Batch of 2 targets.
Target 1
Amino acid sequence: MEVNTFLAFDIGATSGRAVVMTFSKDQFEMKEIHRFSNGIMELHGRYYWDIYHIYKEIKKALCYCGKENIHLTSIGIDTWGVDFGLIGADGVLLALPRAYRDSFTEGVPEKFFQQRMSQMDVYKRTGIQIMNFNSLFQLYQMKEEHYSPLEQAAKALFIPDLLSYLLTGNCVCEYTDASTAQLVNPYTKEMDAELLCAAGVSTSLFEKIVFPGTVVGSLTDSLSKETGVGSIPVIAVAGHDTASAVAAVPTTDRNFAYLSSGTWSLMGIETEEPIISEESYQENFTNEGGIDGTIRFLKNITGMWLLERCREEWKREGKDYSYTELIALMEKEAPFRSLVNPNAACFANPQNMQDAISQFCRDSNQSEPETVGQYVRCIFESLAFSYRKVLTFLKQVAPFPIHRLHVIGGGAKNDFLNQLVADVIQLPVVAGPSEATAVGNGLVQARAAGLVCDRWEMRRFILSSLSPQIFVPQKEFEMYKDAYQKFLSLTSK
Ligand code: LFR
């Protein structure tokens, strides 16, 4: 039987992993072979990604494959969106890529709308939610600051493309990741020259867009030798991690909403056409690019970031809680004591997350959380209510009825939250795969190798290889009504 093996690198803002996916007949198996930490790095008041650290970790995984004689068919890389590296005319990486959590773009969209193009026009052209860290605003602000790497740059490469470039020496601009930049027209799927001009950069800064499944090139000779894996192709997968995750929703029909749950909670629907309307503009929903030319109509909700940051703080105090311990502590506490709006600007990158949560509660006349369990409860309940709010809007605009919510990504492992969400949204929650991003990444490689033909076949493959868990609502919404009203009052603009 023919066996194909793909190596999927899924690199998030806090950690990265290398997963080997072995395909035989109509099933696949997955094995995580390497995991490493990632994070933003402060240098002279600016925040960067240490791309060389990521590169070295990628090499470690390749060396492991070389040593273990794992014969790879191809490699694919997905990462978070919007950030990019700048390359000089001679191919040199000019600086570490700046990180989207750097506050350098705070207030920049407002300036851009005033001086360059109206907010409505930007939204109509791109369908992308306004977030200050979008590449459009990063580029504009870098220009304003005369940021020297941009002054000298011949090319900008989004992070997955940048890593593929380091591995192969070839440059591409992959569509799903480019779509997060707020520079792409979602109908033509090409860069919008007027937007680039408004940001002050040349249209030649970006390569022509390619679609998931395109071969970027082969590993450089020196890497092939050093790692021992040989001259294997690097595929431009759905380079945006959320697009890879959505590709891996285990479903056979379109009647679903998804929640890609990790550092961010990305909640939306998959559509054939963009939804760009007065309402989507008001609610700041985004139309990012998916595989097979689909649109990911979704909203960013600040997700486990709130808890991840609290956990780091508790760790610094010497208490390294596991998720199981946190949930046990939370279960001892009364529900709905305090709620926050996870998307409030104060949670984007605070000095101290617990202080930010307490401050939010004080400002909204609520009791501040006092124990670890109370913080966890506050975060989970606020997230569940955010999901209900977003789903209510999705139901209004979806061109099809929504029958269930698929929770994919690391958050799918949180049974407590899955059940709470099912109760709060009054729809079944289908949880898993928790490694959806790596699965989507590997399946796009499998498609490039001719093993599957489209996203529906990819999804059938997932269903026959993995079994998602289903949580049906067990409580009436009536019992959440008052708390939900309170939550809505905290999130109204
Ligand atoms: C998730 C994600 C989101 C994007 C955010 C910043 O990892 O890719 O989809 O909005 O990171 O790029």
Target 2
Amino acid sequence: MSRSVLVTGGNRGIGLAIARAFAEAGDKVAITYRSGEPPADLSELGVLAVRCDITDPEQVEQAYKEVEDKHGAVEVLVANAGVTRDQLLLRMSEEDFTSVVDTNLTGTFRVVKRAARGMLRARKGRIVLISSVVGLLGSAGQANYAASKAGLVGFARSLARELGSRNITVNVVAPGFVDTDMTRALTDEQRAAILGGVPLGRYAQPEEIAASVRFLSSEDAAYITGAVIPVDGGLGMGH
Ligand code: NDP
């Protein structure tokens, strides 16, 4: 069955892998992109690309209108768009903190709230939020990012309770370190230190995150809600 799937931040990295995985499985996929143009092969896969900055409620509304127009109401939402702005606490400005929270947490609130409208009407839906292992472990220099990612867990679990009776599941995927632009920005020293803590001894590929997102969005996961699924090579074990 072909569903209307929306992936935020789907022009690169993990979001792009998620969009490709759904499209290859035959779903009607839309992605949002902000600055970078999506790769050309996405349109060959039939993926609809909609420009949207999730910090702007009007752009979110516009994006939904376009997606609903072309693919119908969103049945699967993957809230993936996110940013980092790392800094040690005493050097972290108010803007460093609030801008990361505004994208990662409040931006997710904006897109989820809009998707929930159609899902409530349809009495079914799948929502998957992309958090991070550091939301639970913490990370020096990433207090803003970790707080925003931890916030997604409380947000998802509240919605799991609120929306469960309407057959809408809300789950969180918490990736460890994934080979994308976000982690390519790290120094070799930082990368080596991180890998030392990963039992599987390697970074994840974006496709490995996509596989768990697809599972949570499938019929096989119909009885899973409010869960936080680590896809982190064992880095976050025990949390
Ligand atoms: P990238 O930096 O490669 O991509 C981030 C995506 O989010 C881009 O598409 C970007 O758009 C989009 N985005 C950022 N800000 C906004 C905004 N305000 N409005 C709309 N879109 C926005 O990151 P990854 O693919 O690595 O990460 C994807 C998600 O996974 C993020 O939420 C991240 O926190 C999380 N994650 C990543 C990990 C990793 O190791 N890479 C580990 C754990 C979690 P644009 O191209 O325009 O900038």
